[in-house]
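Deliverable D2.4 — example input (structure tokens):
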């Protein structure tokens, strides 16, 4: 995906600025940097809390991104009026599919992969009608 160092540097700079902004008032208080740096209200504790909060937010963003990429399915658009219809879609292997598409009175077989879509052949619509009449119910569309 590339070098992530610039992104990490920007995130760290923003985290430090946010932490300094949140704990700026604690520096003005007398005794805030006393011997017990982990006492309530100390700069170190506030800085730790800010970094923990930032880490949680970044983790949630990354988790959401992963979940959306992993589990999002193409939205079903429902029946569409027009001259083009997908008659059947067949998964050949992961990332490769065959589509039987009817455009007007003609039918085409298309191969689809992550790299390209390729025209395979023109299919006789009479052959499609005959095979659909022979096929059991439920096999007309394999999506």
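Example output (designed residues):
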């Amino acid at each position: 995906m590339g070098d992530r160092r610039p992104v990490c540097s920007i995130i760290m700079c923003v985290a430090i600025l946010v932490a300094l902004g949140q704990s700026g008032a604690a520096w003005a208080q007398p005794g805030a940097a006393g011997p017990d740096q982990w006492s309530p209200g100390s700069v170190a504790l506030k800085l730790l809390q800010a970094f923990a909060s930032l880490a949680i937010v970044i983790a949630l963003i990354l988790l959401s991104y992963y979940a959306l990429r992993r589990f999002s399915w193409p939205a079903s658009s429902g029946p569409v009026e027009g001259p083009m219809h997908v008659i059947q879609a067949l998964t050949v292997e992961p990332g490769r599919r065959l589509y039987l598409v009817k455009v007007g009175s003609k039918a085409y077989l298309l191969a689809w992969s992550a790299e390209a879509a390729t025209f395979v052949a023109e299919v006789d619509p009479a052959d499609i009608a005959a095979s659909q009449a022979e096929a059991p119910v439920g096999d007309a569309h394999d999506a």
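The helical segments are 5-28, 43-71, 125-134.
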